[in-house]
Each structure stands twice: as structure tokens, then as C-alpha cells.
Amino acid sequence: MSCQSVQVIHGVSELLQESAFTLYLAEFKRHEAALFITEAQLIRLLKVSLDWRFVFVAVEGDKVIGLAGYQSKSGSFTGAATPFQLMKCLGVRTFFSLSRSPMAGYRKAQCQELLHDGLIVSEGYRRQGVAAQLLSALGEYAENQGFMKMRLDVEGQNMGAIALYQKMGYQACQKKANGHWVYRRHFDTRNQWEGMSSEQ
């Protein structure tokens, strides 16, 4: 595959939704939270939760090979469902079991901040520049929309992702109790230097 044949698009058209959904479902199944629910429940959960307006997708031909979701004050890629809708599709017991899992950590975008809401690249396309293309598109969008910074969480042992984020201008700023690191990328260099001096 050549990265030149990959097109990055903001939002997902109806024609690409099935391909994007399949990619996201396959990745979600690998997470601990998926152990709490059946595949049918997981499909229902994702169908009510995903908002295709808040995502960039990497497309080759008619296949979605990567996606980068985001959250801002106007909405979230993974936050389309209300708690009632989630409870209805999962059942009360499963809903409360899931809400106590590490995957359920609630994150909210701050003022003038674009929060990453998942970065996935199909297994056969990894380490070929697709993630970098998605991050570049997300960064360009954030800067053009007037966001001051971008924020993401990454597992501390995910060295490949951390190296990519650092290459793309993100800096570690906080280690969380669950072992994840918070990384930020600032668009206003004055804020970037202030943040670094207060953390040292």
C-alpha cells in the first residue's frame, strides 16, 4: 500500500459507515470492556454511541482503513448515546458493570480543546503512515477551528504510539492512576511554554 492512495475524509458518509463500523467493532472487541457483554450487545451499544460527524477516516478505495475520533464542546465520536439509551441496550446489570470498568473513564473536552476519541488503523496498514495522516488532518482541523490545544490519553507501555505522538508535537503532561499518560499539543506557543514551566 502507498500512503498516496489513501484519502483522509472528515465525517463518514452512509456509503462508508459499514466499513468504518466493522473496523471500530473489531478493535473494540480486543478491549477488556468487551468481556462484559455479548457481541449483540456490543453492536447495539456502538450503533447508538457512535456519531460519524466527529471522526476523520482514512479510506483506500471504498474501504475505511483507519479512523481518528474526537470530542469537542459540540459533540463526541463515541458519546452520542444518553445513559438511558446505554442502559436500555445493555440492560441495567451490564450497564453498571461496564460503568465500573477502566474503559468507562469519563473524559470531557475543556474549553478551546479538541480531545482525541480513539485512533485506530486496520492491522494490515499499520506502520505505513496512516496514523500520521489522520493525526495531521485532525491537527489541521483543530487549528483551523480555533482550538488552542489537543489532548489524548495513551497507555504508558504503548511505546509506538507515544513515539508517533511526540513526533507529531504532543508532550506528556500527566500520568494518571490507571497507568495512562495525558499528552497535549498546543497551537498557541505562549500557552505551551507556560504549561511546561508549571509542570517542572
Automatic annotation (TrEMBL):
CDD domains: NAT_SF (cd04301). Keywords: Acyltransferase, Transferase. Residues 1-188 form the N-acetyltransferase domain. InterPro entries: Acyl_CoA_acyltransferase (IPR016181), GNAT_dom (IPR000182), YpeA/RimI_acetyltransf (IPR050680). One of its GO terms (molecular function) is acyltransferase activity, transferring groups other than amino-acyl groups. SUPFAM superfamilies: Acyl-CoA N-acyltransferases (Nat). This is N-acetyltransferase domain-containing protein.
